[in-house]
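hey so i finally got around to running the thing on that chain from the lab meeting. sorry it took forever, my laptop kept dying and i had to restart like 3 times. anyway pasting the input first so we r on the same page abt which one it is
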Amino acid sequence: MSGQHPEQLPELVRLAASAAGMEASLSRRGFLLLSACAVTSLAALGLCEALGAGAPLVILDNAQGMILADPSRCVGCQRCELACTEFNDGRAQPSLSRIKIDRALNFGPAGPTGGSTGGSIGGSGMQGLWGNGLVVQGVCRQCPHPVPCATACPEDAIQADPRTGARVVDAKKCVGCRLCQRACPWGMISFDEERQKASKCFLCDGRPKCVEACPAGALRYVPWRDLTREGQTVQTPLAVLSAAKAKACMECHVPARRKPKAR
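ok and heres what got predicted. didnt touch it at all, straight out
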């Protein structure tokens, strides 16, 4: 296992617990769980070496679930947007919704040109009510590390919810700089002009109201999986990474060590 001896595992587990702030309350079950993670991680490092890979290995938790959208079922009623804002903001204001229907309702994600070269209303790429009728819902993909919006935030206002693992914006820390908006490739950060605060989908503490409100069954709450490599992005993201975050990120990543060359 990457040159690590079994007697070194307890020390690795203690270091992992310390990094996670768990050293004071690490139970026997937690110790065993972290031990299993350590063994798995070391095994993965060994695999990287065997394959000659130089890519880093990072161990971080993702969200427990995510919202999966089915455009073939969406009828464009926008009840999901209303449910989102009524529950989270106490007002019926679809522009603040963490799920995006309105922006793709008429033209689709590609906008009025539909991605066609001529830019005509009848372009081959047109979706939504003015095209093929397919309404493509915009939902937060609950990105894995490095989470673009959280990485871009200079105030560390976007953190993982301990209950669901979903990233949530701490309004008390948010300064309204909008860097998170510009960093999200799918444009899923909402911004309240009145309060000057950003917001994003945090899965409503594990019971997404948009899913409950959808009359067509076009939204489902499912176990998390990585969908960030699927589908088209809606904007070119702004890559923002402070020096302090870059250093912290480097400390989290464990580089795969290469075997010495045979002489």
